[in-house]
Amino acid sequence: MSARLLNGREVSRVMREKLGTQAQQYSRDFGRRPVLATVLVGDDPASHTYVRMKAAACTEVGIESRRVHLDAGLSTNAVCAEVRALSEDPNVDGILLQHPVPPGVDERAAFDAIDPAKDVDGVTRDSFAAMALGTAGFESATPGGIMRLLDSYAIALSGRHAVVIGRSPILGRPMGMLLLARDATVTYCHSRTADLSSHVESADLVVAAVGSPGLVRGEWIKPGAVVIDAGYADDKGDVDFDSASRKASYITPVPGGVGPMTITTLLEQTVRAARERSMS
């Protein structure tokens, strides 16, 4: 068996064409472009790269990107104040606080300073509750992007056994909630899980999201399983791609799988937030 690639770049391209049309329509209807504010605290090189990528993607679809760069030495209260100011700004539709923040800043407090109506990255407590309870709200961008990628290939989830490796509050945990809402049976695995391989071997769908290169080995993969590699460290994914692709039915490449979908979901939710706010 040779796995079919889940091509996030191609799916994102199609989605962005549609988003461009929606953003243009919004501009005609309301006299301005949707606005995404990106908040970067400190000078982490990787974070700067991610923010530039998101700004370029905004330009591509007709969203205005407003960059806010804060000093790494700011206190939690100061960062939260900046985020609250954006939350109160009527000309800002979505807010992205780039993760991670410096060690001296309480990231959870900073996330929760975002107005839930502008939480287009799906990182607040309110957004997590909405995902868990199945109510209206914004999805965490990476899990939401994964769901859109699975849907684009018509991959059935109901009744399937999904193993999520990772339990971060912005990736692993919300990923499991979104899969559960689609009637998958979800097992969470993490750094304290005993005999990880046995859990993976039983999975119809594996989502690896820990940032540990090569953690998931091909011999663990159940024949015909779907494999989503959401990990990224040292330019590599969490899954040994070569061996896993010989057993899986579908698999994401790294790069080119989950990453483009994360950014496109962020853009999609920004356009949605702009229209919902303008019509409320």
TrEMBL record:
Phylogenetic lineage: Bacteria, Bacillati, Actinomycetota, Actinomycetes, Mycobacteriales
Biological role: Catalyzes the oxidation of 5,10-methylenetetrahydrofolate to 5,10-methenyltetrahydrofolate and then the hydrolysis of 5,10-methenyltetrahydrofolate to 10-formyltetrahydrofolate.
Gene3D superfamilies registered for this protein in UniProt:
Leucine Dehydrogenase, chain A, domain 1, NAD(P)-binding Rossmann-like Domain
Q: What is its EC number?
A: 1.5.1.5, 3.5.4.9
Q: Where is the Tetrahydrofolate dehydrogenase/cyclohydrolase catalytic domain?
A: 6-121
> Which pathway features in its UniProt record?
One-carbon metabolism; tetrahydrofolate interconversion
What this protein catalyses is: (6R)-5,10-methenyltetrahydrofolate + H2O = (6R)-10-formyltetrahydrofolate + H(+); (6R)-5,10-methylene-5,6,7,8-tetrahydrofolate + NADP(+) = (6R)-5,10-methenyltetrahydrofolate + NADPH
Kindly state which keywords UniProt assigns to this record, in alphabetical order: Amino-acid biosynthesis, Histidine biosynthesis, Hydrolase, Methionine biosynthesis, Multifunctional enzyme, NADP, One-carbon metabolism, Oxidoreductase, Purine biosynthesis
Subunit structure of this chain's protein: Homodimer.
Which intervals hold domain Tetrahydrofolate dehydrogenase/cyclohydrolase NAD(P)-binding?
Answer: 140-276
Chain residues that bind NADP(+): G166, R167, S168
| CDD domains hit by this protein | NAD_bind_m-THF_DH_Cyclohyd
Which protein, by its recorded name, is this? Bifunctional protein FolD
